[in-house]
Write a structure and sequence with these properties.
PIN domain-containing protein; five-stranded parallel β-sheet; alpha/beta
Length: about 160
């Protein structure tokens, strides 16, 4: 898959380590934010794949978020996703199968979304606009409220125009 030069991948361990090393959650957010701020210039975007995102979430669930209720953990995930958005990080779905992977992974970390209806699932992605699907099939994500990007748009001026928004 083609990514322009100014679209940087982020490794899960970078973020996980910062959360693990700090006792205060707010300090962790500040530390991660500062790192990302210094890592690239303001006009550049970064991305993590769903695999990396789930690695981060599952790790945090087993460590600093291990005693949270389902609802509190749900809110933490939304907060982390918004945090990524504020720091110009996109979470990329790389294939149509990532829909099923999305459900499976969240059920592994006790969301049990496989038994939820579409409305309940969509609550996870409500008001979050940094999740991008790179897929030619728009329908599979239609009800999840996930912003759709056709891979044919990812070329030359089109991708640069999107990255600058």
């Amino acid at each position: 898959m083609y990514y322009p030069e100014h679209y940087y991948p982020i490794d899960a361990t970078v973020i996980i380590d910062m959360f693990r090393d700090l006792t205060s959650e707010q300090l962790a957010y500040n530390s991660v934010s500062k790192f990302l701020y210094e890592m690239v210039e303001h006009n550049k975007r970064m991305y993590i794949t769903m695999t990396v995102f789930f690695e981060i979430i599952k790790n945090l669930r087993c460590t600093i978020f291990k005693d949270l209720t389902w609802n509190d953990f749900n809110n933490k995930i939304k907060r982390i996703m918004r945090f990524f958005n504020q720091n110009r990080i996109d979470i990329l779905y790389l294939s149509n199968n990532d829909v099923r992977k999305f459900l499976r992974n969240f059920s592994i970390i006790d969301f049990n979304l496989c038994n939820c209806d579409v409305d309940e699932i969509s609550l996870l992605t409500k008001d979050i606009d940094n999740i991008v699907m790179l897929s030619s099939d728009k329908k599979c994500f239609k009800h999840l409220g996930i912003r759709y990007k056709d891979p044919r748009e990812y070329n030359g001026e089109n991708i640069n125009k999107w990255l600058s928004t």
